[in-house]
Amino acid sequence: MPLPAADQLLRSRPHALEGDRTAALRHYRSVTLEARVAAASPHELVMMLFDRLIALLREARDAAAKAEAVRRVRATERALAIVDGLDSTLDRARGGEVAEALARAYAMLRAQLLDGSPGALASASFAAEEIASAWRAIGRPRA
Predict the structure, then answer these.
(1) Which domain holds residue 111?
(2) Which residues contact 80 (CB under 8 A, 6 or more apart)?
(3) Are 109 and 127 in contact (CB under 8 A)?
(4) Which of 40, 126, 127, 130 can bridge 44 by disulfide, Cβ–Cβ 3.0-4.6 Å?
(5) Rounded to the nearest 10 degrees, how much is the dihedral formed by the CA atoms of 125, 130, 135, 138?
């Protein structure tokens, strides 16, 4: 009895479908993220951005420490895009001192990202984690 085509392919070339599997996982993550974004409140969207920013800062810091310039630059570019996006959403007219403080924090993050040294990236990570912590506290229901 002949084997089905997929079984034959897997037996003859077990890694042939690895690219398809990777693409499928990437697509699933994308669909999952899109669903989370569609259902998120503005506050939750900001938290998602901060979570991604913190992950990118860790990646950039790790790459800088290992002298992996391409990886550091890629993570830095993505982190800068998030910082720019967060900054562009500030309503300075209605936000007053809070919006101005966040604008200064985002400017500092930009400068540290552009510096690119492990120390500057560590400082940026700490600052982003502090801001994210404050956002989380704002979103928690009060007892």
Answers:
(1) 41-139
(2) 110, 113, 114
(3) yes
(4) 40
(5) 170
- If asked whether residues 61 and 123 sit together in one domain, one would say yes
Judgement on whether residues 35 and 87 belong to the same structural domain of the protein: no
Domain shared by 31 and 50, yes or no: no
Q: What is the pLDDT of residue 1?
A: 47
Say whether both 71 and 122 belong to one domain: yes
3-state secondary structure the chain: CCCCHHHHHHHHCCCCCHHHHHHHHHHHHHHHHHHHHHHCCHHHHHHHHHHHHHHHHHHHHHHHHCCCHHHHHHHHHHHHHHHHHHHHCCCHHHHHHHHHHHHHHHHHHHHHHHHCCHHHHHHHHHHHHHHHHHHHHHHCCCC
Shared domain for 49 and 112, answered yes or no, is: yes
Residue 33 shares a structural domain with residue 47 = no
Q: What separation in angstroms does the CA of 143 have from each of 15, 135, 140?
A: 54, 17, 9
pLDDT in tens, 88-120: 989 888 989 989 999 999 999 999 999 988 899
Q: What is the pTM of this model?
A: 0.72
